[in-house]
Amino acid sequence: MALTERQYFALRRLHSLSGVFPIGVFLAEHFFTNSFALHGAESYNAKVEFLTSLPYLYLIEGLGIFLPILFHLVVGVIIFREARFNNRSLNYRQNAMFALQRISGVVLIFFIAYHLAATRFGAYFGYDTSDLFALMSDKLQNPFVVAFYVIGVCSASYHLGNGLWGFAIHWGLLTGRRAQQRWSWAALALAVALAVTGLNSLLAFRPLGLEPILLFDKSASHVHAVAPAAEAGLPEMQDAHGHGAEGGEHR
User: Fold this and answer.
1) What is the pLDDT of residues 124-147, one digit of tens each?
2) Any idea what the CATH number is for the domain that residue 46 is in?
3) How far apart are CA 206 and CA 28, in angstroms?
4) How far apart (Å, rounded) are the C-alpha atoms in residues 4 and 184?
5) pTM here?
6) What is the number of alpha carbons within 13 Å of residue 78 lying toward its C-beta?
7) In the chain, how many domains are there?
8) How many Cβ atoms from other residues are within 10 Å of residue 184's Cβ?
9) For residues 218 and 153, what is the distance between their CA atoms, to the nearest angstrom?
10) Concatenated DSSP letters for 62-121?
11) What is the C-alpha separation between 33 and 27, in angstroms, rounded?
């Protein structure tokens, strides 16, 4: 049964809304939580344990994550089948964004399925999920898995960033052409920021021996502050009570 124009328009609006909330919010939270891997296995596994021990976890996951993703996927397939990649009413950049949004959506179907099977439901497939940091580190020593995750993270980041632009259009938040153009660049910048965050989180698992970018490392800054004095043979700085830098009594 074909949808009427009114029904199709309503689905498009609900589709864009579900992509922002709750799916987009969850993606941002997921990337943020994964960033704790930058502090090592203990910190990352502690966050995973906290999330998986939440009360009403299955209800939260079912209604807040899996059901919206399923809705977004089904409606997205309907929209994909109606898509016209050579729409002459759009300029080249808009047409490319239009195509990439749908291509990234297809990629995400396979990426999300694999990621869930390997992590959230990994125990059912024979994986040891008691130490998720070690599991991810082991998986990311395979160059094909690394490439797949890089493509998946970039696809998710672009899909959300560009989806925010579509959300503003479908819900009538931006009506002027200039405002729409500015928001499209802002949404693209957000997509790049998400991709950088997600990819840096992947580097925390040392894929293929690569190292992450640490913008701030408290332990390293302390070592660097003490090391020059030690190398020069100078005594540690004391406070007013005669204590050294480590807080012990100076003798």
Assistant:
1) 999 999 999 999 999 999 999 999
2) 1.20.1300.10
3) 22
4) 29
5) 0.81
6) 15
7) 1
8) 21
9) 28
10) IIIIIHHHHHHHHHHHHHHHH--TT-TTS-HHHHHHHHHHHHHHHHHHHHHHHHHHHTTT
11) 10
